[in-house]
Amino acid sequence: MKPPILTIIMLTVISGTMIVMTTSHWLMVWIGFEMNLLAIIPILMKKYNPRAMEAATKYFLTQATASMLLMMGIIINLLHSGQWTVSKDLNPMASIMMTTALAVKLGLAPFHFWVPEVTQGISLSSGLILLTWQKIAPLSILYQISPTINPNLLLAMAIMSVMIGGWGGLNQTQLRKIMAYSSIAHMGWMTAIMMYSPTMMILNLTIYIIMTLTTFMLLMYNSTTTTLSLSQTWNKTPLITSLILLLMMSLGGLPPLSGFIPKWMIIQELTKNEMIMMPTLLAMTALLNLYFYMRLTYTTALTMFPSNNCMKMKWRFKCTKKMIFLPPLIVMSTMLLPLTPMLSVLD
Amino acid sequence: MLKIIIPTAMLMPMTWLSKPSMIWINSTTYSFLISLVSLSYLNQLGDNSLNLSLLFFSDSLSAPLLVLTTWLLPLMLMASQSHLSKETLARKKLYITMLIILQLLLIMTFTATELIMFYILFEATLIPTLIIITRWGNQTERLNAGLYFLFYTLVGSLPLLVALLYIQNTTGTLNFLIIQYWAKPISATWSNIFLWLACMMAFMVKMPLYGLHLWLPKAHVEAPIAGSMVLAAVLLKLGGYGMMRITILLNPTTNQMAYPFMMLSLWGMIMTSSICLRQTDLKSLIAYSSVSHMALVIVAVLIQTPWSYMGATALMIAHGLTSSVLFCLANSNYERIHSRTMILARGLQTILPLMAAWWLLASLANLALPPTINLIAELFVVVASFSWSNMTITLMGTNIIITALYTLYMLITTQRGKYTHHIKNINPSFTRENALMTLHLLPLFLLSLNPKIVLGPIY
Asked: What is the reported pLDDT for A312?
């Protein structure tokens, strides 16, 4: 894509999200979402193949439906409260509609069906933007309306998301689908804590974005989209194999890596609020996630995947993609655990 | 505590920056120095623990385990020299780095004050061990072994995290030094039963308890020698140590909840010892004997009498050294004939007499010959369990007999009798191997002169 056009489109995406995050008028929220949606469609279609167009179409349809549901919720709120301000006291009916709409936008179960297919059809860098940046806007609206959300709805969606994210990813070898199911599961964790401590949701979102950003960058460095091609990394850049190992374990939530911080904090907040079985259930189903990350680690770093003899002497061009900020991101994705006491500044 | 932690962390840059000919020498020497420094922690005050800082402390329970851990690192490095000799330099350094990271995490685990920090480090020890087993193991079964090891431990320990956070909310703190005085008795309601289970299952899986022991033969057998040594000697003791710490919070529910686990341990002791009699794989035999000894520790910790705690602590140290030396001996066999099958290398006493002497001493220690600390420990546990219930003496006595049976079976099969024809041209014992066995057995037999070091806080 030509640079000026790409700039305009990216600026629209960013300003769409910014509008959603900073506005206090419900109509502007809807406008922000639509700006975001319309501008990201060309980004999803960076490659002109039918698969990408199919993915972009699916994305457009689901997100447009969600925006319409959101608009319905906004109008119901307008009917009952008489004003357009984004505030905490929403009508319960409007709250349910908005929560459902935002769940469709985020890819929470049971509205998660579009996430793997859309993520699979687009290129790695578009998938990166889809799974990280696009989550910020809906979560910011959920953050603002969190006191009024129906807890049963939210908890049901959270538990289902974690389970579906775990079981769905088990049979995948395509890395983009694996990252999609990982995103579904992490969204489940984020919504689980939303009622009790929205701050922890922001913490989880931050660490999730850092880890997913790093993972996608490492995958783009290798230009790999399947487990098979990821397993050849030992030949191309051996250093990345150990980084993938650390990153996958961090995504799975193993101490002492950063991925453990959100899980620990969320379980702490949930137990403080007298919920014991739910964090246990969430933690156990997160182990399913860990299983397929471990499978990736095994094929990449810990064993030498079967390859034919010519692979061992293969030469490749050096990667020329701009890996902006990759070393600090890697450090942040794996070594942030000792900094957890700094969370006390949030109080 | 930093005087041990920082030098251990610094071993890593030292390994990476050493000359190729000096990596083993440097790392082994400096880790011996670190273990010398850790010996000073054995000088415990009589009535209290050494409170070293807000984060670290060491009392008579954790000090012997700390010394065992630091003593084991140079021994692991010595044992690994042979099978890593053909690897490239970067891979050797990576292996040593994994061992050092594991050592660091284990040191911090044994001396942690805060139970959440203990939990995080307890889980963190899984990652380097997984990497050692899966990356440097020798057979294809190691993939399954690593997964079983990781997932069995994680499934057991995630409820522990929830339980610890719950206890923190109700009690206000999880600092071990405070909680030992603040612990309120908990009655045996259903929710307290689940709390008890959540707290204990992690350590039961780690010990391992008989029904949950499936990961152990896989992991021990598939790991390379340093992995087997550290697994058998130290990682199993994490479970025992954790159990002894956390039972303080769980009285008096333990009196009722202990019954199923006592039964599993008592029966499992005999089952796993009996399986040892029918093993063809040498490492598998030693792995099952670890399950059997650890079942004794579980019985001891669940009875909660002073004698049984002393016996449990001493048994952990004794078993650590004994099973580590048995794995080293099995490895010396493996390096020569590249097979773990016992009957392939028979009659070794004729060919390697000094190694046969180490085999004899290690086997005698394993079957708890007086006056080794193995005997003191087993005796304390047997007597304590007899006082808990008279019937257990039949099972314990049977276990001691079967332990003696399989240990002698192992000794006689590998050492005595006519040697097989194909082992006539194996290498003679290296000085490194003899030194390794000496360094294992010397502390074990010297401890029988002064066992009060390892008898724990109740002494």
From this structure: 66
Residue A211 CA to residue B365 CA, distance in Å, equals 50
Give the pLDDT confidence of A210-259 residue by residue, as tens digits: 999 999 999 998 888 999 888 888 888 888 899 999 999 999 999 899 99
By the CB < 8 Å criterion, does B150 face chain A? yes
Give percent of chain B with pLDDT exceeding 70.
Answer: 100
| Nearest CB partner across the interface for A267, out of B121, B135, B162 | B162
Cβ contact, residue pair A298, B134, below 8 Å: yes
Is the peptide bond preceding residue A238 cis, with omega within 30 degrees of 0?
no
B56 forms beta bridges with B112
The answer to whether the Cβ–Cβ distance between A267 and B134 falls below 8 Å is no
Q: How many CA atoms lie within 13 A of A246 on its CB side?
A: 18
Q: What pLDDT score does A315 carry? A: 67
Chain B residues in contact with A303 (beta carbon < 8 A): 134-135, 143
CA distance A197 to chain B (A): 16
The beta-carbon neighbor of A280 closest among B121, B154, B162 is B162
Residues found in chain B: 459
Q: What is the pLDDT of residue B137?
A: 87
Find chain A residues with C-beta within 8 A of B105's C-beta.
256
Taking 3-state DSSP, the helix, strand and coil percentages for chain B, each rounded to the nearest 5, stand at 75, 5, 20
Q: Which two tokens stand for residue B117?
A: 């920090």
Residues 6+ apart with CB under 8 A from B93: B15, B16, B23
Tell me, yes or no, if B166 comes closer than 8 A to chain A by beta carbon: yes
Give A-chain residues touching B143 at CB under 8 angstroms: 298, 303
Return the structure tokens found at B270: 């005999």
Cα separation, B330 vs B264, whole angstroms: 29
Tell me which of A193, A274, A280, A300 to substitute to probe the interface with B (most B C-beta atoms closer than 10 Å). Answer: A280
Give the residue extent of every domain in chain B: 1-42+54-454
Nearest partner of B316 among B141, B123, B412, B455, judged by Cα: B455
Decide if B161 and A290 are in contact by the 8 Å CB cutoff: no
Burial class (CB in 10 A: 0-12, 13-18, 19+), A318: exposed
* Cβ atoms of B186 and B195 closer than 8 Å: yes
Q: What is the pTM of this model?
A: 0.94
Query: Helix, strand, or coil here: A56?
Result: helix
Model confidence pLDDT, tens digit, residues B394-411: 999 999 999 999 999 999
Q: What is the CA radius of gyration of chain B?
A: 21
